[in-house]
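Q&A log
Question type: sequence-to-structure
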Amino acid sequence: MSEPRFSPTSARPRSLVTFIFQDQCETGAPPSSLLKALVRSVFSVRHTAVTLFRLAQAIGPCAPPLASLLKQFNHVVTGADLAWRCKVGPGLVLHHPTGVVWGPGIILGARCRVQQGVTIGGKGGSDEDGSPRIGANVILGAGSRVLGAIEIGDDCIVGANAVVLSDVPSGRTAVGIPARVLNPRASEGV
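Response status: OK
Response body:
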């Protein structure tokens, strides 16, 4: 599983703008596509949630209280409660951000797609529980929960309302409460 990119690589304004809109634009996109991304962010709650999250991530290392305030603003405006300290790769899609909750220690790979009501974080109580590591190209179904110090490989699908409490190998599908991993043949028809 590759480590996601989660902070701007330089302090130049172009890099900051590119970082904030990385989920709506291709890498190396011309300025006109950045303008289109800005327009989409203003008129779509799914893009607004991701843009505010990326802005909080960019501000966080320099001004943690301001990043926390921006996180709360995102929660009030879009319904997404996304800790700015999580590490999330580019290409994130929050199809419906309402009810999405992420803890600060999670790692989410590139090009992940997340439905409404998804919770990702520790099991609660203490920091010793750890947080999930989720690979690239993962689809998290509506209402799913991914909890604890577990790993979900690349190209996985987590079914709607599944509660994942143990590792899921790459390319597999997890369904149920608690989630069970389907064998590859069974997951082809899902």
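Response note: Helices lie at 13-20, 31-43, 45-59, 64-78, 184-188.
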